[in-house]
């Protein structure tokens, strides 16, 4: 059951991956014009989604992405996805309750993160946050005693075409 929950989180992150940092309505991403205004950027995102494999049992990663956030005090890292060429990095943790996930979001709020979107159901929840003084975004999804944290900081992208805006 834990793996199904983590697969659900991965599906959520695939959708959030495309949405994060682009500042366009969901309808534009799913069935409208190119949200990035740049076909190369969209093509890179699609390639990453198809090719990046999870790294399991890695422990809390120490990198430029995770430097933006504190390590959760509870939960166990199950896997990571490294989308750093596109300025994104995902950490999935299990053994964490919905109440503990909410407490982590409160901790982030106390540390300069602002909730910009949130939705909650009986057994799942999702929250998008933005760092007050930076162009850094977090997407946190909870389901089945697991959370996924997608960190987006396009300034850290290593192989992401520059936008022509």
Task: Give an overview of the whole structure.
- The model is unreliable at 13-36 (pLDDT under 50).
- The chain has helices at residues 2-19, 26-31, 39-51, 98-110; strands at residues 55-56, 76-83, 88-94, 113-120, 124-131, 137-143, 146-152.
- Helices cover 30% and strands 28% of the residues.
- It starts with a helix and ends in a 13-residue tail after the last strand.
- A seven-stranded antiparallel sheet has the order 1-2-3-7-6-5-4, with helices on both faces.
- The protein is globular, with a radius of gyration of 15 Å.
- By secondary structure, it is of the alpha+beta class.
Name the features.
165 residues; alpha+beta; 7-stranded antiparallel beta sheet; 30% helix
Cα distance spanning the termini: 44 Å
Total count of helical runs of at least 4 residues:
4
- Give the low-confidence spans: 13-36
Give helix and strand order, one letter per element, not per position.
HHHEEEHEEEE
Q: Short description, anyone?
A:
The chain has helices at 2-19, 26-31, 39-51, 98-110; strands at 55-56, 76-83, 88-94, 113-120, 124-131, 137-143, 146-152. It is α+β, with helices and mostly antiparallel strands.
Layout: helices, strands, pairs:
Blueprint: H1 2-19, H2 26-31, H3 39-51, E1 55-56, E2 76-83, E3 88-94, H4 98-110, E4 113-120, E5 124-131, E6 137-143, E7 146-152
């Amino acid at each position: 059951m834990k793996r199904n929950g983590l697969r659900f989180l991965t599906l959520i992150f695939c959708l959030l991956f495309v949405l994060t940092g682009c500042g366009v309505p969901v309808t534009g991403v799913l069935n409208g014009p190119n949200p990035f205004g740049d076909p190369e950027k969209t093509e890179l995102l699609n390639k990453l989604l198809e090719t990046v494999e999870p790294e399991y049992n890695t422990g809390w990663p120490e990198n430029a992405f995770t430097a933006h956030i504190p390590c959760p005090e509870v939960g166990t890292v199950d896997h990571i996805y490294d989308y750093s060429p596109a300025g994104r990095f995902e950490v999935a943790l299990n053994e964490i309750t919905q109440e503990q996930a909410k407490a982590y979001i409160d901790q982030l709020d106390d540390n300069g993160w602002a909730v910009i979107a949130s939705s909650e159901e009986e057994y799942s929840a999702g929250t998008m946050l933005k760092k007050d003084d930076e162009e850094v975004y977090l997407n946190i999804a909870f389901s089945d005693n697991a959370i996924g944290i997608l960190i987006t900081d396009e300034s850290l992208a290593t192989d992401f075409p520059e936008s022509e805006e």
